[in-house]
Specification:
Layout (H helix, E strand, L loop, with lengths): L2 H11 L9 H15 L13 H11 L6 H17 L1
Length: 85
């Protein structure tokens, strides 16, 4: 299988995990997904009291420079570790 196919399968599997991932794992999944599908985060930082949006923005921003393929691989690895936990 190709990396893209494995990634798409991991995205589908993310919705059927036996346990809800921790908030930290959810942020990591979000950031890796966005980096893999969109690339670097070049948007404006959220302001105000939307702490969830700020956390998501910061998690994605930390991955700037990571290639799409590396982000896909890390996403797949994280899903696999959450499935086996």
């Amino acid at each position: 299988m190709s990396l893209q196919t494995d990634f798409e399968n991991a995205v589908k599997e993310s919705t059927s995990l036996s346990e809800r991932p921790s908030n930290q794992d959810l942020l990591k999944l979000y950031a890796l997904y966005k980096q893999a599908t969109t690339g670097d985060n070049n948007g404006e930082s959220p302001t105000g009291f939307d702490f969830k949006a700020i956390a998501k923005y910061n998690a994605w921003k930390e991955l700037n420079g990571l290639s799409g393929d590396d982000a896909m691989s890390q996403y797949i690895d994280l899903i696999n570790s959450l499935k086996s936990a």
